[in-house]
Amino acid sequence: MNLQEIDFSKTLTDEEVYNSIMSNYSGLSKDWIFHQWHWMNSVYMPFKDHYKYMIIISLVEKTLQFYDQMNIQYSYDDYYAKSYQQIEKFSITELCEKLDLPKETVRRKVLELEREGVISRNKKKIIIDRKAFEFIKPENQIKFSSKYILLVSQALNKDKIYSKKLDQKSIEIIFKKKFTLCWRWFYRMQIPLIIGYHKFMQDLTTFHIWGTVCMNQVLNVSKFLDTGDKPNLDHFQTSDILIKNLGTNSGISAMSISDMTNIPRATIIRKCKYLIKEDLIKMNENKQYVLTTMNFRKILPYQTEIFRYKAKFIRKVLNLLVIS
After folding, report:
1. How far apart are CA 199 and CA 96, in angstroms?
2. 31 and 150 Cβ atoms separated by less than 8 Å
3. How far is residue 112's CA from residue 72's CA, in Å, rounded to a whole number?
4. Nearest to 57 by CA among 130, 121, 161
5. Enclosing H/E stretch for 191
6. Predicted local distance difference test score (pLDDT) of residue 5
């Protein structure tokens, strides 16, 4: 498409998407939390180690960036036609800076990935071998992301900011057609967002467990967020309702968290002790974990900042749909 054919009046800015997400939060929060919880499960499952997968996707994102710079695009099917992927050269220091991890941690994880046959070096080539680990194509993640983007587009439609009417299938199609481009955007959202929570929680496993408690809590108070035919509640009104209803006795046990995430129960109990100490969760009368009011007071200002990563990703996908 030539540049002059694009109607820029129909494209979005990051700020427009961000403001719409924040002002329509009650109608979007449940799907977003489930979207992120599913993603965290996908990060943990291949190696039973969040950081190894974060290293892998950081290397892949760097390669996808090269594709983008060279105007090379692969569809979903073409990208996964091979069981391996050659990646750009990388340094431990570069990974440390990107993932905000100590050098010794990154070096140890990279060596473990090499011993497991996931990363291999063949002369000057560096290969990620997808056959060497339980690599799951993001078929379901594309569906979850497409559903959430559809909900945001509908909110933008109601606000008369975005005129294009979409359906979930059309969003899934653009993801698969422009896969390496869109998935680079996806990683550019997820990597700083997840690493940001690592900084806040000191550990990704702790964040994963906290996120599971959070998802359970939101699902249990979602009836209070249903506005019916009335306008959606904004981020702060939604959070206020969640805070007021945190006293519900609908918590979640360590065994249930383990069943949902595959994180060992002993690890969950140990991490939950830290979360209780930090007043981010508490135990109810049924010996189940629930959130605390302090939890939301601590994390709300931080969430409003990291949501900008989400707004940027969604803006790019929606604008791509306008010009495609």
Report:
1. 13
2. no
3. 31
4. 130
5. helix 179-201
6. 66
